[in-house]
Amino acid sequence: MERFKKIYSQGNLLHNVLEIWVDTETGVNYVFHRDGNAAGFTALLDKDGKPVVTP
Predict the structure, then answer these.
(1) Beta pairing partners, 20
(2) pLDDT tens string 19-54
(3) Hey, how many other C-beta atoms are within 10 angstroms of the C-beta on 14?
(4) Which of 10, 12, 21, 19 is nearest to 51 (CA)?
(5) CA distance 21 to 29
(6) What distances in angstroms separate CA 37 from CA 20, 29, 40, one per listed residue?
(7) Judging by DSSP bridges, how do beta strands 29-35 and 17-23 pair with one another?
(8) Which string of DSSP letters, residue by residue, matches 12-25?
């Protein structure tokens, strides 16, 4: 079983990629963004600053 599952993706392979991943053990959602050689992966937060959790 894979721990992280991609549930959303937009953009192309090399430029301006935005993805949402879910940790299948905790349900926490994460955002991955890549633009050229720069990339980041962080928890997706709701309007109150709490992590978005998928049941």
Answers:
(1) 8, 31
(2) 999 999 999 999 999 998 899 999 999 999 999 999
(3) 10
(4) 21
(5) 6
(6) 19, 23, 10
(7) antiparallel
(8) -SSSSEEEEEEETT
